[in-house]
Amino acid sequence: MGTRPTRIMKNKKSDRRPIAARESQYSQRVSSFLARAGVSPNAISIASMIFAIGAGASLVATSLEGAARVYWFLAAVLIVLRLSANMLDGMVALETGQTSAAGELFNEVPDRVSDVIIFVCAGYAAGGSPDLGYAAAILALFVAYVRALGNHMGVSQLFIGPMAKSHRMFTLAAFCLYYTFIPANWQFPSALAWGLLIICAGSIVTIIRRLRRIASVMAV
């Protein structure tokens, strides 16, 4: 499999998500290792979706009677691995310089599938809310749609938050760690539902901010 296309849309080169961790020596070493090992960016994108499926399964498992805290911890780890894979696929693509017409599909489709799986499953986790899980999934898709729409209209770098993809995932991972380490008698039973509500509210604000950014640029 190849990597991202060099030119799918006119702003593709300037529409790379700014990630501070991309500049760390650890990230660069891992991406160099993957590139030397012949691992394609498309394969890394698929791996990110597999991590998301594992995170979703772990979240649902927390609702089982007598479920151990290990499921919360595993969900948090897999969510972070999903984000790491999202970062590394682009780094490997740039390092290898490979291109393919299907690269953009492998870059975007696994992301959208991963968002839906993780948030829907979070709704069915212990302390979650199915309604808020579905709402968070729908809003995550709409946030991504607005970015894609803006890029199509010539407005790049639409990664503003407060609930861009990385913000949503880290917020959810933080609540997973809350259930992992906070003693049971200190926990707020429906904390995850509140976490999903925060993600939904932040996603709505993000959508509004991105639409306003598109409108302001187009008005110039």
CATH hierarchy, class: Mainly Alpha
CATH superfamily: CDP-alcohol phosphotransferase transmembrane (TM) domain
* CATH architecture group name: Up-down Bundle
Unreliable sequence segments:
1-14
Could you tell me the number of beta strands?
Answer: 0
Question: How many DSSP helices?
Answer: 7
Broad structural category: mainly alpha
Mind describing the biggest β-sheet? none
CATH topology: Four Helix Bundle (Hemerythrin (Met), subunit A)
What's the domain count? 1
The amount of helix comes to 55-70%
- Percentage of residues in DSSP E strands: under 5%
Average the pLDDT over all residues and give the rounded result: 88
Give the overall silhouette. Answer: globular
Radius of gyration: 18 Å
Distance between the termini: 41 Å
Order of helices and strands: HHHHHHH
Verbal overview:
The termini are far apart. Helices cover 68% and strands 0% of the residues. The protein is globular and about 50 Å long. Residues 1-14 have low confidence and may be disordered. With 220 residues, the chain is an all-alpha fold. It has helices spanning 25-36, 41-61, 70-96, 103-123, 130-152, 165-181, 191-219.
Layout of SSEs?
Elements: H1 25-36, H2 41-61, H3 70-96, H4 103-123, H5 130-152, H6 165-181, H7 191-219
Entry keywords:
mainly alpha, single chain, disordered N terminus, globular, Four Helix Bundle (Hemerythrin (Met), subunit A), 7 helices
